[in-house]
């Protein structure tokens, strides 16, 4: 039986509470020529192991490996398929039913696009939406312009040699995207909230953000030739962003709403200053 047009790879480590919802979000897609590969990355949680035992079916395969972290789990899942299009989906995320239907035509229409990401709807502890920037190499040297859960051509993965399995502390997706766009591919952003992202306080992402300076340093050293090649573009674009932000702040300060807010808070600011002076005198 030939491989489907799309294979969705879902790494899972002790996320038994959420993984079924992730799988269901793919099985419910309006585009049907798709297979799901769940990679159990050495889960130890009994609930997760119980769920894993019930997942396999006609369109779902479960692979098991010892704990090697998310990069290795994604590579394992991708290697198990020959589909020309790959989607990675974290076990605690889910896609809206029309994500595949809307993302695939982008790849068909533009051979320079290698990755399709979308606006993200945050769930759980942080509500709201966020739209990645997408773009090319200069964009990704400044910040991560795509989500880890996204669609890409298998050719992108093959050209860069897969995810870097030595990156176990986080930002492995950012590293992967940098290597992809460095090959000339571009990242397209669907301007719709088609990915539901569960931003838990103790998630791997928030853990990575806590050590962001260290991880960014690792990324910079790994891609040092690229940063040297594009340093002027990165710095100029960054400076333009800063100037744009300063201009927006100046406009805000001159707005009637800002002036009204200053008037309303002025008595409190005066009282607070008086209180600090009084208490400072008492403490002396």
CATH topology of the largest domain: Spore Coat Polysaccharide Biosynthesis Protein SpsA, Chain A
Strand content: 15-25%
Radius of gyration: 23 Å
Low-confidence stretches: none
State the shape: globular
Strand-and-helix sequence, N→C? EHEHEHEEHEEHEHHEHHHHH
Q: Could you please describe the fold and organization of this structure?
A:
It is a single chain. The chain is of the alpha/beta class and 284 residues long. It folds into two domains: 6-222, Spore Coat Polysaccharide Biosynthesis Protein SpsA, Chain A; 236-283. Helix content is 49%, strand content 20%. The chain has twelve helices and nine strands. It has helices at 19-27, 46-54, 69-79, 99-109, 137-142, 154-160, 172-181, 204-210, 212-222, 224-229, 231-253, 256-283; strands at 6-12, 34-41, 60-65, 85-88, 94-95, 113-123, 128-130, 150-153, 186-198. Strand 1, helix 1 and strand 2 form a beta-alpha-beta unit. The protein is globular.
List keywords for this structure.
284 residues, alpha/beta, Spore Coat Polysaccharide Biosynthesis Protein SpsA, Chain A, 2 domains, nine-stranded mixed sheet, 12 helices, 49% helix
